[in-house]
Write a structure and sequence with these properties.
The chain has one domain. A hairpin with a 2-residue loop joins strand 1 and strand 2. The chain is built from 12 helices and 2 strands, in the order ααααββαααααααα. The N and C termini lie far apart (about 170 Å). The protein is rod-shaped, with a radius of gyration of 46 Å. The C terminus is likely disordered. About 25% of the residues are buried. Helices cover about 80% and strands about 0% of the residues. By secondary structure, it is mainly α.
Length: about 325
């Protein structure tokens, strides 16, 4: 088993890795695919729009006027509700901005690009080694490939673990392609030095078939590992979004309950005022009706005329 047996797989891996680096830095390919795959923007907006829909509006709060219960004013409670509403609204907007930034970090793949650039140069080195096997002993080529594979595994694992977190330290700045180039140059020089010194010669030569298979497959590892990492981070962020949205829904529902109580108090006061105004009017109407003389019936009027007529005749006869 020799290195040239895997030349097609190595060439394909080299092409894929450099293509990923190029497309990522030109079009932010991973960010676009991540957003399309997990639909972060829609999920985030839908989650917090539901919270905003539950939040009581300013018009409702401003429609509540000061009322009194047992002589105590509710103006303080109204003002407290307005402050709570403003605070919750600001917190929701802050959460939206924070989650947009966090989603950007989840979909960020500059460190993945750095690892892909290293793997690209690692593949080129293997292709170069195929060409010099005719002028250099196979054992030295195999030892060099073994050492370069070890450094490749160390760099990629460190890149996956540190990711975007080590950008403040230049020696752990996996977000920079320069870091990958400089690191590979150091790994290449050390591999040449250790090969020249013959370090671990017998051990590496004895297990080289295994190292060769691992080295070829490892060129594709970045795509698999980065996909798993992004998937796990995305799942965590989605869960965090849902948890925070539910928390603000509870706050909005509690505020709505308090506002409904204030509205109920205001409505009761208006009803009492309305009843107190209508009661004196009704009593005045009944009093005026009681003092007004009763209208006489037609029979009573006829009886009264006959009485007057009779008394007049009687007085006339009596005078005669």
């Amino acid at each position: 088993m020799i290195l040239s047996d895997f030349s097609p797989m190595i060439e394909l891996a080299v092409t894929l890795n450099i293509a990923f680096v190029a497309v990522e830095y030109v079009k932010s390919y991973t960010n676009a695919v991540c957003n399309q795959l997990f639909n972060f923007a829609k999920f985030l907006n839908d989650s917090f729009e539901e919270c905003k829909s539950l939040l009581v509006d300013d018009v409702t709060l401003n429609s509540i006027h000061d009322s009194k219960i047992n002589g105590n004013s509710i103006a303080g409670e109204i003002e407290k509700a307005k402050i709570s509403r403003e605070k919750i609204s600001n917190e929701i907007n802050s959460e939206l901005e924070a989650f947009r930034f966090k989603i950007g970090n989840v979909c960020q793949s500059k460190s993945i690009s750095s690892v892909s650039l290293w793997l690209f140069m690692y593949g080129l080195s293997d292709l170069f080694c195929m060409g010099i096997t005719s002028i250099l002993a196979d054992n030295y080529v195999e030892l060099f490939v073994s050492w370069l594979t070890i450094f490749t595994i160390l760099y990629t694992i460190l890149g996956w673990v540190v990711g975007e977190k080590g950008y403040k330290m230049c020696y752990l700045d996996f977000t920079s392609l320069r870091h990958a180039l400089c690191s590979f140059a150091i790994g290449l020089c050390l591999s040449v030095l250790f090969t020249w010194l013959g370090l671990l010669y017998d051990k590496c030569i004895s297990i080289f078939p295994f190292i060769l298979i691992v080295s070829v497959l490892y060129m594709y590892s970045n795509f698999v590992v980065s996909s798993i990492m992004i998937w796990n981070r995305a799942a965590k962020v989605k869960k965090e979004i849902k948890t925070n949205a539910d928390k603000y829904k509870d706050k909005c529902n509690k505020l709505q309950h308090d506002v409904n109580q204030l509205l109920a108090v205001h409505e009761v006061e208006l009803k009492i005022e309305k009843n107190s105004v209508s009661t004196p009017v009704n009593s005045n109407i009944s009093q005026s009706t009681g003092n007004r003389p009763r209208k006489k019936s037609k029979r009573e009027k006829q009886a009264e005329r006959q009485t007057i007529k009779g008394s007049t005749v009687y007085n006339f006869i009596h005078k005669q």
